[in-house]
Amino acid sequence: MRTSRSLRARLTALVTGAATAAAAALLTLGAAPAQAAGTPLRDLAAAKGKVMGTAVTGSKLTGTYGEIASREFNALTPGNAMKWGSVEPTRGNFDWAEADRIVTFAEAHGQQLRGHTLVWHSQNPSWLTNGSWTSAELGQLMKDHIALEVGRYKGRLATWDVVNEPFNEDGTYRQTLWYNGLGADYIAQALTAARAADPSAKLYINDYNVEGVNAKSTALYNLVKSLKERGVPIDGVGLQAHLILGQVPSTMQQNIQRFADLGVDVAITELDIRMQLPADSAKLTRQAADYKAVMNACLAVSRCVGVTVWGFTDSDSWIPDTFPGQGAATPYDENYAPKPAYHAIAEALGGTTTPPPTGACTATYSVTSQWNTGFTGQVRIACSGAALSSWKVGWTFGAGQRITQAWNAGCTQSGAAVTCSNASYNGTVPDGGSVTFGFNGSWSGSNPVPTVSLG
Ligand code: G3I
């Protein structure tokens, strides 16, 4: 059964400053709905003949994660499970369990698979990277690996990212195990070996920061052109698209088109759009526009086969580990609530525009009194057209303030980050009702009003 949008408690936190009395931010949060209203993305994409994929972690493919992965996407990419270090951690000892699990799951749900990735400089087993190999040995190792892995899944994977990230930002070749040992020809050798192992799989070169026209994408363009001219099997280029909020390259469609004009397919293979945390409504709205711009750039070029997101939920994203303080990069939040980005993808794929939330709960922060080193503040949570059975309010102090005491809520502070949850007796906020909690704090220098989120 699909949860109707009206049943989902969409929460809006309205923050006002005590002194300025101006609304500082409007944050819209979903309250853990497992399903989004409307037609699933995979059906919208299929109607346009496009791929709408996601990277997945095999061990998570149950429960809500599995439901969303199967319901919304018509293609899966193993985020890590098919990398060399995953499948052959010690030489000659193979672990296909997670890769097989993803393949089986995809087949059970009528989803395409994108194999990722065969020849890369990262996530290789230490026996390989620490070994001392002659050029001939290295070439044989690479070809044997491709023959084994591609052969294992022959006829079952639509696509392989054969070579991953071969270029530096300036368009020169990245100095890797493969380039240093085999020269630039390792790319042609790898593609040729993959074609031999599974003639029906589409073979790609995949890289990041090649979404717009720039030195790196031009190097990739020139490589693909030369491979085509030499008759080396190459079917497509993958533009990873690990993007930063507000920085979708303006030349993306043009760039996709120039690859298409070479006679290869193009796929957006690892889309995510990261932002400085915490997220707020302005950032999430901007992110939605960015997602839509990427979708539209692909949809505008017939040889762009589709878009894969690099994890569909913020709880399964590589961003926070790699870019501390950044995140919220995927279309679903950590509780599997679809974000504005999700709806933007749906709209780009021709889905109906989702109506705005009918009800909202708001959290208003104010300083009620202030003296030389201390202050008293309060947060009022009010609902209209919506209701809460529990609540949590968070904010980050901007000037070193510290909570010393709170009432009618349990508050903790870690660094500048404060989280306050309802007490046992005031979690319920009925439609049309409100709850207020208070606190004392210390300050010095200034006492600016923080942006508050309600979840
Ligand atoms: O599996 C181990 C686990 O046993 C251990 O306890 C844990 C401790 O840190 O690490 C786990 O391995 C991590 C692995 O992801 C699986 O979660 C690695 O540390 C971590 O480095 C690895 O990160 C992956 C990253 O590639 C490595 O470069 C990300 O999940 C993965 O999303 C990311 O994907 C790449 C694409 O393949 C290529 N393009 C860029 C993209 C983002 O980096």
TrEMBL record:
PROSITE patterns (UniProt xref): CBM2, GH10_1, GH10_2, TAT
Catalytic residue positions: 270
Swiss-Prot/TrEMBL catalytic activity: Endohydrolysis of (1->4)-beta-D-xylosidic linkages in xylans
EC number(s) reported in the record: 3.2.1.8
Signal found in the keyword field: yes
Annotated GH10 domain residues: 38-348
GO terms, molecular function: endo-1,4-beta-xylanase activity; polysaccharide binding
The organism's place on the tree of life at top rank: Bacteria
Signal peptide from the UniProt entry: 1-36
Ranges where the CBM2 domain occurs: 354-455
UniProt xrefs under InterPro entries: CBD2, CBM2/CBM3_carb-bd_dom_sf, CBM2_carb-bd_dom_sf, GH, GH10, GH10_AS, GH10_dom, TAT_signal
Keyword Signal: yes
SUPFAM superfamilies linked: (Trans)glycosidases (SSF51445), Carbohydrate-binding domain (SSF49384)
Alphabetically ordered keywords of this record: Carbohydrate metabolism, Glycosidase, Hydrolase, Polysaccharide degradation, Signal, Xylan degradation
Biological-process GO terms, alphabetical: xylan catabolic process
PANTHER family with a match to the protein in the record: BETA-XYLANASE, GLYCOSYL HYDROLASE
Family per similarity comment: Belongs to the glycosyl hydrolase 10 (cellulase F) family.
Descriptive protein name: Beta-xylanase
Organism the protein comes from: Streptomyces curacoi
